[in-house]
Amino acid sequence: MDDLKMKINVGDLPEIICSCGNKFWLQAMTLRKLSKLLNPKGEDGVIPIPDMVCSKCGKSVYEIEEVEDDPNKPRLKLVK
Ligand SMILES: [Zn+2]
Questions:
Q1: Which of 10, 30, 35, 69 is deepest in the core (most CB within 10 A)?
Q2: Residues 6 or more apart in contact with residue 43 via CB below 8 angstroms
Q3: Where do the structural domains in the chain lie, given as residue ranges?
């Protein structure tokens, strides 16, 4: 399959811009408590979930949604 060998130029891909206009993101984690009732090990635990947050306003990258009414001018809309 040639599709699997397709080379992607990262510079050609659209950047994700925060609703505040910032384009830099920091690695972050959200944590979920795991009850010992659900844990096979029978003890309370914590499950880390990877996230990215805006380095300027701290908004999660998953809280912004891309709006494409004009393909040449991609905009971002705040969901929450
Ligand atoms: Zn931001």
A1: 30
A2: 36
A3: 14-78
